[in-house]
Amino acid sequence: MTTHATSLDAAIEAGDNSLYNEDLAPVTQDGRTWSMLNYLTLWVGMSSQIPTYLVASGLIILGMNWWQAIFTVALGNVLILVPILLNSHVGAKYGIPFPVFARASYGTYGANLPAILRGLVATGWFGIQTWIGGVAVNLGIAAVFPGWTTFGGRIGGQPLGMWLSFLLFWALHMFIIYKGMDALRRLQTWAAPIVLAFGVGLAIWIIVRAHGIGSMLSDPGRLNSFGTFMPVFIPSLVGVMALWATLSLNVPDFTRFARNQRAQLIGQAIALPTGMTVFAVLGVILASGSKVVFGEAIWDPVQLAGHIGVPAAELVALLGAAVATLTVNMSANVVSPSYDFANVWPSRISRRTGGLIVGILGILCQPWRLVSDPSGFIFGWLGGYGAGMGVIAGVMIVDYWIVRRGQLRVRDLFSHQGVYRYQGGWNMHALFATVVGLFFAWGGYAIPPMHALTDYGWFVGFFVGGLVYWATMAASRQRSSATGERPEEQLAAPSPSEVAP
Question: Which pTM does this prediction carry?
Answer without folding.
Answer: 0.81
